């Protein structure tokens, strides 16, 4: 089971009080570590290294950080709603407050591309972004369950 099938409540972080992109990535790494059993530092480094290649801020207040990690067998996704928007060097230069992060196994990076593309399509919907910005944990889990729609 991937965490997006459906997204588990523990994979939803609400009102993360981060001040920088690095703080967000560290918070995500900590939760990924709890879920996957991987070391938080390794996860944090992988996410940060990917971010150095180019911003994962895709516009409309959304970022889609992702990385390949040794020792997991399937993609794992997390959602974070930030307490306040912050600079992510997004393509539209707008601050980010919604983050969907995906870790993938190193041996099957293609699987994470499918997961990322599903979330990217979903996050294009203004109605979905509004639900994610205003909903409680249960509403967010329901909204993100649509990531399985093809």
How many beta-strand runs? 6
Structural class comes to alpha/beta
CATH architecture: 3-Layer(aba) Sandwich
Terminal CA distance reads 18 Å
The average pLDDT score comes to 89
CATH H-level superfamily title: Mannitol-specific EII, Chain A
Please give the count of helices: 5
Helix content: 40-55%
Per CATH, the class reads Alpha Beta
Q: Calculate Rg over CA atoms.
A: 14 Å
The largest sheet, given as strand count, sense and whether it forms a barrel, is: 6 strands, mixed
Overall form: globular
The CATH topology turns out to be Mannitol-specific EII, Chain A
Provide the β-strand percentage band: 15-25%
The number of distinct structural domains comes to: 1
Low-confidence stretches: 1-6
Provide the succession of SSEs. EHHEEEEEHHH
General description of the model:
This protein is α/β, with parallel strands linked by helices and 150 residues long. It has a single domain (9-148), classed as 3-Layer(aba) Sandwich (Mannitol-specific EII, Chain A). The chain is built from 5 helices and 6 strands; from the N terminus they run βααβββββααα. The chain has helices at 21-36, 40-53, 109-123, 126-134, 137-144, and strands spanning 12-16, 57-59, 62-63, 66-69, 76-86, 96-105. Strands 1, 2, 3, 4, 5 and 6 form a 6-stranded mixed β-sheet that branches. A hairpin with a 2-residue loop joins β2 and β3 (62-63). The chain starts with 11 loop residues before the first strand and ends in a 6-residue tail after the last helix.
């Amino acid at each position: 089971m991937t965490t997006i099938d459906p997204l588990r409540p523990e994979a939803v972080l609400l009102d993360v009080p981060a001040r920088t992109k690095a703080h967000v990535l560290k918070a995500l790494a900590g939760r990924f570590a709890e879920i996957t059993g991987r070391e938080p530092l390794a996860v944090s480094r992988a996410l940060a290294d990917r971010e150095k290649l180019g911003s994962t801020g895709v516009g409309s207040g959304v970022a889609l950080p992702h990385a390949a990690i040794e020792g997991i067998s399937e993609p794992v996704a997390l959602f974070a709603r930030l307490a306040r928007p912050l600079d992510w060097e997004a393509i539209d230069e707008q601050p980010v407050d919604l983050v969907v992060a995906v870790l993938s196994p190193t041996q099957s990076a293609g699987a994470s591309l499918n997961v990322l593309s599903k979330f990217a399509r979903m996050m294009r919907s203004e109605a979905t972004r509004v639900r994610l910005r205003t909903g409680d944990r249960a509403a967010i889990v329901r909204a993100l369950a649509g990531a399985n729609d093809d």
